[in-house]
Amino acid sequence: MICYEPIGTIYSPFTTPEGMPIQPAGAKDVQGRVEVRPAYEEGLHDLEGFSHIFLVYHFHKVDGFDLTVTPFLDNKPHGLFSTRAPRRPNPVGLSVVRLLSRKENILYIEGVDVLDGTPLLDVKPYAPEFDAPGSVRTGWMEKAKRNVEEQRADNRFK
Amino acid sequence: MICYEPIGTIYSPFTTPEGMPIQPAGAKDVQGRVEVRPAYEEGLHDLEGFSHIFLVYHFHKVDGFDLTVTPFLDNKPHGLFSTRAPRRPNPVGLSVVRLLSRKENILYIEGVDVLDGTPLLDVKPYAPEFDAPGSVRTGWMEKAKRNVEEQRADNRFK
Lengths: 158, 158
Prior knowledge:
With 158 residues, chain A is mainly beta. Helix content of chain A is 5%, strand content 31%. Chain A has 2 helices and 9 strands.
């Protein structure tokens, strides 16, 4: 077993899973903040030079998982690991968000698609050189992707 | 405390941290494989439609952390969370790799920048709609980024 202690908490306007955007693309203008434990503030220096950051977090409101799921973006079942569904064997969440500013140990962010009170595991700078491959195929999402921004969560993963 | 059990193991040609590429950009042609636990094979269906995937893993060879580090890409110190250094409060690693093919529970991958035997926590499909923001600033990395592909790890994070 690998055990982690949250380094902070993510705050957002979303207090229940219903009606949440599915990914930051659907939450472009939604603002929130990350409160990192004050003991780690020194580690946040220079982060404000980056326009975007990865938040790695724990889906704290989910329980269990199914290996085949019908994701929000489609009406056909798919293998769980080919989706971003929160109910996973290890419910680790990953979002790229815009970093608006930093004040001491608080990060002000935009494009937040996570539930209020989500435990934060890590913050990493986003760098296209590492993180944005060139020519990309996205399988079953290809057809569905035009609808992403309009999709909202329902009870499916409660 | 949040505890996870690895869902599989990442295999690569890198058996020691020295000489490893720092990120997949420096490991473009390096091939490896991911062995997901057979019990989770069903969850991998449809993943092969995606050209790229996120691997979320545990840096199993690191110990402790410093909040200020001098990363491989620069010769100036920076806040830990503005770097991708493996020694972190929660040593969670994140890489985008190319998915070459899948055979049952085995994923054949390219662009592997992780150590052989690394415990895998999660696999997610990479989708530019979610994961590739448009206009991006990368702070201290801006100057250094031209050198990323030539950089190799040393003993700094042992």
